[in-house]
What we know:
single chain, 202 residues, alpha/beta, 6 strands
Amino acid sequence: PDTRVVVRREAIAELVAAARQAGRMAITIELDPERPERAGLVAVVVSVPGQPPAYLPLGHRYIGAPAPPPAGDLAPLFELLADPSVAKITHDAKGLIRTFAGAHVHGGVAVAGVVEDTMLAAFLLDPTAEAEPAEAVVERLGGVLLPRRATIAGRAKGYTKASLETVDVERAAPWAGAIAHALLPIADELPRRLDASGLSSL
Length: 202
């Protein structure tokens, strides 16, 4: 499904309400090109069952980039992230939790309720493989073919992965949204995959 770019207060509230009603959501984040421990948010990407994924641009930097929603408009989303009763599926839970806990404009949020991490699951299913980016994991575990990050964001510089910070939102959103959307069915299949590999007790 087409990814929605969500910036209006009403649209954020509707997204949060849908996630609460569903009781589960997939979430990924996009960071600026700083070192991971200092990185700020470029975007939050959310997928709720039965709905198209949502892309919330928070820190794109280019002429004409959409202004991020005011902090007050984002408060319901951050409250949702801290609510353990809503299950979260993500790729790289450690990075998600660290980023939201960080000392930046959108930091100070204690993410709770993470029930599935496709980065960890991919490693358990194939410990010989190097850590895979999200687009590679959704291809391997979900059969979803997407361009590699470098095709969308350019080549990484130094110690960071390439950032979507300067990528047009209309180009970044469909790619990132497709990843988040794919995490939900992948998570549904993970118990069977792990059980078949003798890893269900982990």
